[in-house]
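haha ok so turns out i had the wrong file open the whole time. this is the CORRECT one, sorry everyone. sequence first:
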Amino acid sequence: MNNLLVLPLLIPLCTAVMLLFIKRYVILQRWMSVLGVLLNFAAAGIIIMQVRTEGIQVLHMGGWLPPYGIVFVADMLGALLVLATSIVSAFCLFYAFGTIGRERENYYFYPLFQFLLVGINGSFLTGDIFNLFVCFEVMLISSYALIVLGGTRRQLRETLKYILINILSSTLFVAAVAYLYGVVGTLNMADLSLKVSDAGQSGVLN
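then structure:
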């Protein structure tokens, strides 16, 4: 097991929690956010090197094995996506410094930005479809708050449309996950791959 796989989620999560307590200090929030992104970049680089030298990295949270435990998996694609997320988020942060406005910065822009990164990185590293749904929801809830930040009429109107569309898609996602579990008996992606492969050979899902 590789405990480093949790860092791309843990770093922005801890950064977001700390930022919640320093709402009034905008400059400090800015640089703490940048530091969190840079640490994430470093963690992604380390994971990439480990995947390159040792192969796919796996972390079973709490020692619980599939199909019952929470599993994080890093292959080269997932690790590169986490690295790309760190790079893009750094540019977005620096752009926000001069464009977002002090008023919006005072309304938890930077903690919400970090929570958004938690959901994105978790989506790239999870090895379980239900946990993928959870990470999507973390990402979506953060995006709801970021879109409506500022409270203008146009933002509220468009955010309502965005929320309604995502509520519908989330409902369909949960229904599909439940149906998949009922048919296959697991939501672990590795187990699903094996069972679908076996079913393809036998022609029947057991």
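Residues 153-184 form the longest helix (32 residues).
again sry for the mixup
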